[in-house]
């Protein structure tokens, strides 16, 4: 819920609760500050599926999660998060946020308004040249997301994106894949849909 539409919901609760009470990060690069990737905002807009994240209570037990971003005329971004809490047979939930691009960030650092006057930071850490995949993060690395334009991702691509996150100082053992299809439930590496880690 960072901004993510998927990330957005995360940040809402993270800001109010001091994030996810995360465990120590064993990555030797844990203290290296994250670098923001520049993005072409019009090209970056649209639908992104949540392929994986670091589980935390605000997004836990969601399946079929996705973010939808729309660039407004005033330069801000309408940020929508959709997902089904508790299973694919549950009604779709929807959360909406308004994001602002931090000047001088190349479009990759967004301030997400959870509600006035509470804002949190969302960082675009990577987007591939074809804008098929993107990595989002939170400054202290307690939260992170892998997004794709499609609801599925092959294992090789997923591993390569985890390697990128590891090189940025993330503890990638904490990431879990988010079920986008019913047949993914219960598979290794996927988050359970019963609210437990």
TrEMBL record:
PANTHER family: APOLIPOPROTEIN D. A lipid is attached at residue 19 (S-diacylglycerol cysteine). It comes from the Bacteria. GO terms for molecular function: lipid binding. The keyword Repeat does not apply. This is Outer membrane lipoprotein Blc. It comes from Pandoraea aquatica. Signal peptide: none annotated. GO terms for cellular component: cell outer membrane. Involved in the storage or transport of lipids necessary for membrane maintenance under stressful conditions. Displays a binding preference for lysophospholipids. Pfam families: Lipocalin_2. Homodimer. Keywords: Cell outer membrane, Lipid-binding, Lipoprotein, Membrane, Palmitate. GO terms for biological process: response to stress. The keyword Lipoprotein applies. Residues 39-180 form the Lipocalin/cytosolic fatty-acid binding domain. InterPro entries: Calycin (IPR012674), Lipocalin_ApoD (IPR022271), Lipocalin_bac (IPR002446), Lipocalin_Blc-like_dom (IPR047202), Lipocln_cytosolic_FA-bd_dom (IPR000566). It is found in: Cell outer membrane. Belongs to the calycin superfamily. Lipocalin family.
